[in-house]
């Protein structure tokens, strides 16, 4: 990561219920080893990186995993248990300013169906933020957009009700179809500028070249992100040339296999 000039990492928590926060690694109900979050944070801290901790999924006592993407947070049967676990994480990391917490990975349906409204988004975000702030956690909190995190519509409509209530808020958007298909440098720049002109701090917590719609071009987006100095994180840092979104191949070189030279493209974005 040092060679890639990576300054911010986003660590996904796939099993929030059993994820150890401090102490020793544990073997979870899916028979997988989970390393404590504090240990992961320390590793990044030693290299001068900010760590974003983001819950991606909930694994029940039988080992069944429910991924968070596309869900309405407050309607989930585990929502109260989710809040308790997130409080525990906030308690651990309050005062460690290089640790940011994201509320939920990619909430709400991509097409704004399943009962979604901007008011639901606002109510959920306020409740989840308050849950963390009650612990004394004053670090940066990342608030996701709507439409599986790809849309800024809710932020534009109601985001000011969050930023006027709480400090140290950054809004997280994900650059996939909504930003990469049917767009241009001009339209992307206009959308980002609109958010910034309204004083909404933003980060793109994910961008990748392949998603549900297939392989996509990222060059126009990355050019604008660079011009507007908008922090942008890639999905995903791993060594696997068979995963088109993986930045590295099996030899830990940039992965450019059947993915529009994704590895080299993002490496140049970070280092040029």
Key attributes of the depicted protein:
272 residues; alpha/beta; TIM Barrel; two-stranded antiparallel ribbon; 9 helices; 12 strands
Task: Describe the protein's architecture and organization.
The protein has 272 residues and is an alpha/beta fold. It has a single domain (8-271), classed as TIM Barrel (Alpha-Beta Barrel), CATH 3.20.20. It is 32% helix and 17% strand. The protein is built from nine helices and twelve strands. It has helices at 37-45, 79-93, 118-133, 153-158, 160-163, 177-180, 185-197, 219-227, 262-271; strands spanning 8-13, 26-27, 33-34, 50-55, 57-59, 65-67, 99-102, 141-144, 169-175, 202-207, 210-211, 214-215. The strands form four sheets. It has a six-stranded parallel beta sheet with strand order 1-4-7-8-9-10. Helix 2 (79-93) packs across helix 3 (118-133). The mean pLDDT is 97.
Q: What is the 3D shape?
A: globular
Mean pLDDT across the residues is: 97
Q: Output the strand order for the largest sheet.
A: 1-4-7-8-9-10
Look at the structure and give the CATH class: Alpha Beta
How do the helices and strands line up, and which of them pair or pack?
Elements: E1 8-13, E2 26-27, E3 33-34, H1 37-45, E4 50-55, E5 57-59, E6 65-67, H2 79-93, E7 99-102, H3 118-133, E8 141-144, H4 153-158, H5 160-163, E9 169-175, H6 177-180, H7 185-197, E10 202-207, E11 210-211, E12 214-215, H8 219-227, H9 262-271
Parallel strand pairs: 1-4, 4-7, 7-8, 8-9, 9-10
Antiparallel strand pairs: 2-3, 5-6, 11-12
In short:
The protein is an alpha/beta fold and 272 residues long. The chain contains nine helices and twelve strands. The protein has a single domain, classed as Alpha-Beta Barrel (TIM Barrel), CATH 3.20.20.80.
């Amino acid at each position: 990561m040092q060679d890639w000039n990576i300054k911010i990492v986003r660590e996904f928590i796939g099993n929030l219920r059993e994820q150890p926060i401090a102490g020793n690694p544990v073997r979870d109900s899916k028979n997988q080893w989970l390393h404590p979050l504090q240990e992961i944070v320390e590793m990044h801290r030693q290299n001068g990186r900010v760590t974003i901790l983001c819950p991606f999924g909930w694994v029940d006592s039988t080992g069944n995993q429910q991924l968070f993407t596309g869900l309405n947070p407050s309607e989930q049967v585990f929502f109260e248990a989710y809040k308790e676990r997130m409080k525990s994480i906030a308690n651990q990391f309050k005062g460690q300013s290089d640790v940011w917490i994201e509320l939920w990975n990619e909430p709400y349906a991509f097409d704004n169906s399943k009962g979604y409204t901007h008011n639901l988004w606002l109510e959920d975000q306020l409740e989840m933020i308050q849950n963390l702030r009650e612990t004394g956690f004053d670090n940066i909190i990342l608030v996701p957009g709507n439409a599986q995190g790809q849309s800024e519509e809710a932020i534009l409509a109601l985001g000011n009700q969050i930023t006027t209530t709480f400090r140290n808020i950054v809004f997280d958007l994900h650059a996939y179809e909504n930003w990469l298909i049917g767009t241009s440098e001009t339209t992307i720049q206009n959308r980002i500028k609109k958010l910034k002109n309204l004083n909404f701090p933003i980060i793109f917590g994910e961008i990748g070249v392949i998603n549900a719609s297939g392989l996509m071009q990222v060059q126009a987006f990355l050019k604008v992100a660079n011009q507007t100095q908008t922090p942008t994180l890639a999905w995903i840092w791993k060594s696997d040339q068979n995963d088109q979104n993986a930045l590295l191949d099996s030899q830990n070189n940039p992965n450019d296999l059947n993915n529009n030279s994704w590895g080299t493209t993002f490496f140049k974005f970070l280092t040029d």
